[in-house]
Design brief:
Elements: E1 3-10, H1 14-24, E2 32-39, H2 46-55, E3 63-67, H3 73-87, E4 92-95, E5 100-102, H4 106-117, E6 121-130, E7 152-154, E8 163-166, H5 167-172, H6 188-198, E9 203-215, H7 222-243, H8 247-271, H9 279-295
Parallel strand pairs: 1-2, 1-4, 2-3, 6-9
Antiparallel strand pairs: 4-8, 5-9, 6-8, 7-9
Helix pairs in contact: 1-2, 6-7, 7-9, 8-9
């Protein structure tokens, strides 16, 4: 029977955290589950209070919360991994964000694909759930479109939004597992999986391991979509600069950025009449702009602002 620690970073989203924990209580699984929450808010400590309230109600699984006073998503993830590896003999560590919640069969779907593929790290499907539906323009936008894939081995995964990782894979990496230089910008997960790949890890997609992600009104608009695309480009480029030192690779990346910035405006004009397509070139332009900014040393700290409750 596999032993799984479900690790959850949280910052000022007590309602989202409660929704997630209640969903975990409804899991249909034979695994031995425990849950660890890292509250990254030393001032309000709403995550700690939410966990304490559920524990007082005799919640289903072993549940603990730790306070991580140093602000940053990388710091919270590092504390979760350290806690999961130190406090129990886990076979796997699963990660969900505090604005997500899984379907009942989520964990069993992950474990089945892990057994079938032997993968060290797996990503599951993430389906957005909107307070206000944004319209067809949002379909190609990262963070607003469903994140789906074909179940089975894949070359790489990039995000810790709904993942399952083998303990042995975590133990391969030197600590800290997540680079704290990405504390408020995001990209700590892409950097983590890049390092894991270089350590020889194998990856898989588990499309039946479905989690839902709450999208508040403040995120379901074109302005946020473009800022998210800029941030992804910005953090991706910082990861690229950190790991890729070859001249040829850097020239290829520069050519991709130049191509996107030159062609995207014209493509945006051509696709403007098509609601489902009009945002795609704009997001590509924003992403290329974020990469260019990172190449000149600029960093965009998207997670300095919290959306949702």
């Amino acid at each position: 029977m596999p032993r799984v620690v479900i690790a959850i970073p949280t910052f000022r989203r007590p309602k989202g955290l409660e929704r997630l924990l209640l969903a975990l209580g409804r899991l249909d699984t034979a695994a031995q589950v425990s849950v660890l929450v890292a509250d990254n808010d030393a001032e309000r400590r709403e995550g700690m209070a939410t966990v304490a309230a559920l524990k007082a109600q005799s919640w289903r699984w072993p549940l603990e919360a730790i306070l991580v006073p140093e602000r940053g998503i990388a710091q919270a993830r590092n504390a979760l991994v350290a806690g999961a590896l130190a406090s129990c003999n886990a076979d796997y560590v699963a990660m969900l964000d505090d604005d997500e919640w899984p379907e009942p069969g989520w964990l069993e779907a992950f474990l089945e694909v892990a057994r079938d593929t032997g993968a060290d790290a797996l990503h599951g499907a993430v389906l957005p759930r909107f307070d206000v539906a944004p319209g067809r323009w949002a379909e190609p936008c990262p963070g607003l479109s469903p994140l789906r894939g074909t179940t089975g081995p894949v070359a790489m995964i990039h995000s810790t939004s709904n993942v399952l990782i083998r303990r042995v894979a975590l133990e391969r990496l030197a600590t800290p597992h997540f680079d704290t230089r990405f504390a408020l910008s995001g990209g700590e997960d892409k950097d983590f999986f890049t390092r894991l790949a270089r350590a020889g890890a194998r990856f898989a997609w588990a499309d039946g391991a479905v989690a839902h992600a709450h999208v508040p009104v403040t995120r379901s608009n074109p302005g946020w979509a473009l800022r998210r695309a800029f941030r992804i480009g910005n953090s991706d480029m910082r990861v690229f600069i950190k790991h890729e030192h070859g001249f040829a690779a850097r020239v290829r990346e520069a050519a991709k950025i130049a191509g996107a910035m030159c062609l995207s405006p014209a493509l945006a004009l051509v696709l403007a009449p098509l609601p489902k397509r009009r945002m795609l070139p704009l997001c590509k332009f924003a992403r290329a702009s974020g990469k260019l900014a990172a190449a000149f040393g600029a960093r965009y700290d998207e997670y300095a602002v919290t959306h949702g409750q």
